[in-house]
Specification:
about 280 residues; alpha/beta; Rossmann fold; 2 domains; 7 strands; about 15% strand
Length: about 280
Amino acid sequence: MAMGLRDEDCPAGQLGKNLGLQGKTAVVTGSTSGIGLAIAQAFSAVGMNVMLNGFGPADEVAALRRQIELDYGNETDYSAADMSKPAEVVALIDQAASRFGPVDVLVNNAGIQHVEAIETFPAAKWEAILAINLSAAFYAAQRVLPAMKERKWGRIINIASAHALVASPFKSAYVAAKHGVVGLTKTIALETAEFGITANAICPGYVLTPLVQKQIPETARARMLTEEQVIRDVLLHAQPTHQFVMTEEVGALAVFLCTHAARSITGASLPVEGGWTAQ
């Protein structure tokens, strides 16, 4: 068991101490790849104990955990909880609390996507997208909030999307779910404003993650374009920078939102999308 978080000489521990984050417990859903993994790594870099969650072969997940612990000298745990099932969402939070202590920081990041016209959009896909992208965030927040209120401190960060602020065709379920995430975030913020808890939504644009990579051929089929045209004329066309957002940028913002300097930022929807929603 790595004990680096207790050692102030460890770079992660010292930085975490300076930021007031050393030894805090963080749960990051959907964190075995993409944005979630980058946030988990950023949290580890400032000395947090991180509960990972997501799908993947057991040996790959074990190797990922070992690498994080070697890189940052902190502790991790892992749950394969299915975020479409409320009981497993609750079990994830309880596992983290049992291993590390009450959850200080919750990042609701798990998400899925499907691209198709409304009239042919499969009902099962609609239900799954709302369950994982929206309902899971509600159930996780519901589970962590009593202990956060008791300790008068907590951070809830919901990874929404630029699609929480603007719509795109062929993404009805995802757009609806992410708009719901922003509404949920605002409500949590209002209910917890006097308890030292903040709730914010990060709204990334297109980040080259496995989720986005899967969308490329789906969007190509839906719009009858080549995959190269989808990247150039659909994805990056929406972002004035014409560049994919880097996962590390989202991780850095998540860390900042956990610090004392961000204590008055709550109920906010923070775009990280190269100017997309400024248009």
